[in-house]
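Schema walkthrough. Field components (list of strings):
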Amino acid sequence: MPIATINILEGRSDEKKEKLIELVTEAIHQSIDAPYQGIRVILNEMPKQHFGIAGKSAKKLGK
Amino acid sequence: MPIATINILEGRSDEKKEKLIELVTEAIHQSIDAPYQGIRVILNEMPKQHFGIAGKSAKKLGK
Amino acid sequence: MPIATINILEGRSDEKKEKLIELVTEAIHQSIDAPYQGIRVILNEMPKQHFGIAGKSAKKLGK
Amino acid sequence: MPIATINILEGRSDEKKEKLIELVTEAIHQSIDAPYQGIRVILNEMPKQHFGIAGKSAKKLGK
Amino acid sequence: MPIATINILEGRSDEKKEKLIELVTEAIHQSIDAPYQGIRVILNEMPKQHFGIAGKSAKKLGK
Amino acid sequence: MPIATINILEGRSDEKKEKLIELVTEAIHQSIDAPYQGIRVILNEMPKQHFGIAGKSAKKLGK
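Field assembly_structure (string):
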């Protein structure tokens, strides 16, 4: 029954995000023997001006 | 002083979300005797391609 | 498929926390027509020195 | 290596949000001696109808 | 620079939790081409009485 | 009405954590003009084996 929340910078394709859900679910299943049916994954996209690294936003850092 | 964060799939009306805030606040108040004034509720809407169930997004599952 | 996370100060009985899970689930079900089976509730207990209100911890404030 | 997530109501300028990232990072660095390089800050903007205070949304309360 | 938070029921060995961190990091790297160095994983263990499924705690459900 | 959640590695003194609450609250107040009274700060301590950097736990990395 694990629940994962993953914060990523916005801008990935729906295809890559679908792959992210698939592979993270598989990783949780394999590592701690959690049944697939109970695994939930929440993706949260951050605009670049909403993610700060060492005091500056990813936007300002040109990421 | 409880703080609840509720992840829901996007698509509910403002009226239903207002009801959600009201009823969850009431539920917290009743169950643990927390004063209304201190209760906070944060709603977070997830696009269907951002919520994964058993390795597939709600969008792909046709939810 | 809603997922609620509720931060509360530590110190409630298991009975009250069980009631909290039950009533919040019921509140989500009623307000947005989410099926019971899909609702998840995570409780997170905060020690009083880990929750700050207006710049001071609940411990320091004597809560 | 601290990671801070800050929920704020939507409507602040990019300049204020950049300042928020800068000052919170500085505050974490000063208080617990965490190196700047390892500090991450995530901002999450809430629409007024998604934040509940004492059972009503900030929108309904006219905030 | 993705940051994942994973809620799991308490009781797994340190070895399995280390494997969870390793495999989830690998899954994020593979699916969205995020560099290893920037990936963070936070594990959060829930006591069985703090996780509710369909209105009852995992403890009460005998999980 | 901002709500900040800060994940830190366990091991800091209560005095440093009180300072963290104080300075982060001040930083939020200064940067976005939020009134002190409405600011909440939640600290979440992570055991070293529960925080992963680039695929390994802080414990394994000897942090």
